[in-house]
């Protein structure tokens, strides 16, 4: 007999479920629960899973299918566990793997949690498991509440443990990218921008026509908020523009040209040129905008000046010139030097722009000087010294034209002499005319196609440049003659105190004096004479010589002589006033205040390089220079003595000053007595004096000065002696000024002392000299100590005397007070 199948004992059925809304809870129940919360604590510790396993039952299922149903449930649970264990998800934030030294890659992963809702068991499905879930017994209210509480606790724990993983799983790709960009540090972002700039610049330099759009991206990166990125972007764009800018000005096509049908190559070239021009314009606007910010000033001006030097022929040259010349007198030394250097290179390299930029720059500087009323830095005018002018421009064409005219005249005369040959040579003449016409047409086409400018255009530009330069120079001279406010120009003038632009103006006039029109020479010489101090104003105002320094007045004299020398054939001007000024300025010279180089140059140009002087004037300068050599240092004395020797060599009659007559020189002249304070050298009567100063100068501490003084005193009055002066006053001044820094006169003094001892009859061996020098050097510290002690004692003595005097005064006052008290007591007693 077969075994009987055992019946499955089912648990009792649960009471019907009542919804929460229909349950009524009284106030007494709430009060009881609140008072006895500890009694309900076991509910939270109940295992709802075990309860559900015991409570669940399967309805409407046959006994044969019940076992297979349980097996399917078991398989499903095992599969869920495997998925939970093996299911991994790569974190999208840290998507890049880590490579170890062994070469293995490790990914940062997060376990994927299967999220099931509380009501998932009640959801119906199409599968068999879902059908089976329909037959599951519903949970009780207490079990549901406990289950919900547990789910909430688990959710809170998961939120605390892995908050970032849940956010990554729920967010979209755009949000993830935004978080990635936010998490990147500022340094990484800057490094990426720097690498991007390098890549774009390299690509542009390799093939600019195909990658011209990269310029816009580089310009956009240079608008970053970080200063370092902005500076790097500006420098990168500067390097790219210097390399890819063409050697011609870009002309954008007109509307008619845009409507025309063109080839792909022309279209590509037009796009390249238009893009380059637009980005270049935006770049210049960016530089001019950053010019006002102190952080970017030096970088922007370096970029502007570099562009002006590298591509002066390209578009928007006017904006570059305006920015540079506006700051050519900047108080910042770096910016001013950059601007001046770029303008000088612009003047020196006219082949890059054909001279047009030179004319524009000179006109802008002239307008700047006019606008600021000549109150600018001297460097703003000194740039004119870099200008160069071609004096022989157009002369070959004139000679060719003259030859052609002569040839035509000769032909006319020949035709008049031989009228019978005209009909025979008509064909030849026609051929020659045709040939000449075709040659002229070819020459015209060649000039139009070539980049070289016409000679007449170059001459026109040179004349415009010269007129602007001399207009500026004459404006500065007129302004120097006018009364000015000292406070406004003291900062620009510096230590000299004169007009700030006068010195570079005089240097420029001296350089370009041979190009000045002869009609303006008389006005120029009158200005220079008045500036040197020879004239006064018509309204009787203060003399300009009182406002100018000695160096500036000497420069005026030098410029006047240079102008006369350059235009010697065309001018006939008396320079007596300038000699008078030099004669008076020699005494007004001060070594620390004035420039010795200017004085030496004036002595060379006015006295040494000039032709034969008047005897009275030469004698006056000889005597004045000898007196000057006694009063100042070795460099000034050497320059004066070199000039004095030159004058004595050229003027033989002035050598009578070397004779030691009882009543002065042997050739006194019209004035019998020497007047050392005379303002006019012709009225000083220097021929009546003697050069006794040479005797003192021969004992000068400097050996070079004493040597030249003794050589001058040995010059005789013989007429046929010929002397050749090799050293100029300027050379003598510069050599001794440099030598004076390392010159030590101690050895000369010791030698003179030894000579005196030898002359007195004392025999001192030669080996004693250096020993004495060594002992003097070693005993110097001891002498200093003794002197310091001595002066300390003297100071103590003076302090003691002062204190004793105060003590005597106080003791005397005390005695007087005691006497006063005694007298007062006597008066009270008598009363």
From TrEMBL:
Compositional bias (Basic and acidic residues): 395-404, 415-439
Coiled coil (UniProt feature): 141-168
Basic residues biased stretches: 405-414
Gene Ontology CC: one annotated term: nucleolus
CCAAT-binding factor domain: residues covered: 554-709
Location(s), subcellular: Nucleus, Nucleolus
Protein name (record): Nucleolar complex protein 3 homolog
Lineage: Eukaryota, Viridiplantae, Streptophyta, Embryophyta, Tracheophyta
């Amino acid at each position: 007999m077969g075994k009987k199948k055992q019946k499955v004992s089912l648990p009792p059925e649960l009471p019907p479920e009542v919804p929460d809304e229909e349950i009524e809870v009284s106030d007494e129940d709430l009060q009881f629960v609140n008072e006895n919360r500890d009694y309900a604590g076991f509910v939270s510790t109940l295992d709802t899973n075990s309860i559900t396993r015991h409570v669940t039952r399967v309805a409407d299922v046959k006994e044969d299918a019940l076992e297979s149903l349980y097996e399917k449930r078991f398989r499903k649970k095992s599969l869920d566990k495997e998925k939970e264990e093996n299911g991994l998800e790569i974190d999208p934030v840290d998507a890049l793997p880590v490579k170890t030294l062994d070469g293995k890659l490790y990914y940062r992963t997060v376990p994927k949690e299967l999220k099931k809702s509380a009501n998932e068991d009640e959801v119906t499905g199409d599968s068999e498991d879902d059908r089976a879930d329909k037959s599951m017994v519903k949970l009780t209210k207490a079990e549901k509440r406990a289950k919900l509480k547990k789910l909430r606790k688990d959710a809170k724990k998961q939120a605390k443990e892995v908050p970032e993983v849940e956010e990554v799983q729920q967010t979209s790709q755009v949000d993830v990218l935004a978080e990635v960009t936010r998490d990147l540090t500022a340094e990484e972002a800057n490094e990426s921008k720097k690498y991007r700039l390098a890549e774009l610049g390299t690509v542009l330099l390799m093939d600019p026509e195909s990658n011209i759009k990269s310029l816009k991206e580089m310009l956009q990166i240079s608008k970053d908020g970080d200063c370092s990125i902005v500076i790097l972007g500006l420098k990168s764009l500067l390097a790219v523009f210097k390399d890819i800018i063409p050697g011609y000005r870009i002309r954008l096509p007109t509307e008619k040209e845009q409507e025309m049908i063109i080839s792909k190559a022309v279209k590509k070239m037009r796009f390249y040129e238009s893009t380059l021009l637009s980005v270049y314009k935006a770049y210049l606007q960016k530089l001019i905008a950053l010019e006002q910010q102190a952080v970017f000033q030096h970088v922007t001006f370096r970029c502007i000046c570099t562009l002006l030097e590298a591509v002066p022929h390209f578009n928007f040259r006017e904006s570059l010139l305006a920015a540079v010349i506006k700051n050519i007198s900047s108080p910042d030394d770096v910016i001013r030097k950059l601007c001046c250097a770029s303008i000088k290179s612009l003047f020196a390299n006219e082949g890059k722009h054909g001279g047009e930029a030179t004319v524009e720059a000179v006109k802008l500087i002239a307008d700047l000087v006019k606008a600021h009323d000549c109150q600018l830095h001297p460097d703003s005018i000194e740039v004119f010294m870099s200008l160069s002018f071609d004096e022989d421009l157009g002369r070959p064409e004139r000679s060719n034209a003259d030859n052609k005219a002569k040839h035509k005249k000769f032909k006319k005369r020949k035709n008049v002499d031989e009228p019978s040959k005209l009909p025979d040579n008509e064909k030849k003449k026609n051929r020659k005319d045709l040939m000449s016409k075709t040659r002229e047409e070819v020459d015209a086409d060649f000039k139009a196609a070539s980049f070289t400018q016409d000679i007449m255009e170059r001459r026109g530009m040179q004349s415009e440049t010269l007129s602007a330069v001399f207009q500026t120079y004459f404006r500065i001279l007129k302004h120097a003659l006018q009364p000015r406010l000292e406070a406004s120009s003291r900062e620009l003038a510096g230590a000299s105190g004169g007009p700030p632009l006068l010195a570079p103006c005089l240097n420029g006039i001296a350089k370009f004096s041979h190009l000045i029109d002869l009609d303006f020479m008389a006005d120029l010489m009158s200005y220079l004479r008045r500036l040197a101090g020879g004239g006064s104003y018509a309204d009787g105002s203060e003399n300009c010589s009182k406002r100018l320094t000695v160096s500036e007045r000497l420069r005026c004299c030098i410029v006047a002589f240079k102008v006369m020398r350059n235009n010697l054939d065309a001018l006939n001007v008396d320079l007596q006033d300038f000699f008078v000024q030099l004669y008076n300025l020699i005494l007004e010279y001060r070594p620390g205040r004035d420039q010795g180089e200017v004085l030496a140059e004036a002595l060379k140009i006015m006295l040494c390089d000039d032709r034969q002087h008047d005897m009275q004037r030469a004698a006056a300068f000889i005597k004045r220079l000898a007196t000057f050599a006694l009063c100042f240092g070795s460099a000034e004395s050497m320059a004066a003595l070199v000039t004095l020797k030159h004058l004595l060599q050229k003027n033989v009659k002035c050598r009578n000053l070397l004779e030691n007559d009882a009543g002065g020189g042997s050739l006194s002249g019209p004035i019998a007595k020497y007047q050392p304070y005379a303002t006019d050298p012709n009225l000083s009567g220097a021929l009546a004096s003697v050069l006794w100063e040479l005797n003192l100068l021969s004992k000068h501490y400097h050996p070079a000065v004493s040597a030249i003084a003794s050589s001058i005193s040995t010059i005789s009055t013989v007429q046929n002696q010929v002397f050749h002066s090799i050293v100029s006053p300027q050379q003598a001044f510069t050599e001794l000024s440099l030598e004076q820094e390392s010159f030590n006169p101690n050895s000369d003094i010791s030698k003179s002392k030894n000579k005196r001892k030898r002359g007195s009859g004392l025999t001192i061996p030669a080996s004693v000299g250096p020993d004495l020098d060594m002992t003097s050097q070693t005993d110097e510290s001891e002498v200093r100590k003794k002197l310091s002690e001595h002066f300390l004692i003297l100071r103590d003595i003076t302090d003691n005397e002062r204190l004793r005097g105060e003590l005597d005064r106080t003791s005397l006052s005390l005695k007087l007070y005691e006497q006063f008290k005694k007298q007062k007591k006597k008066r009270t007693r008598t009363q």
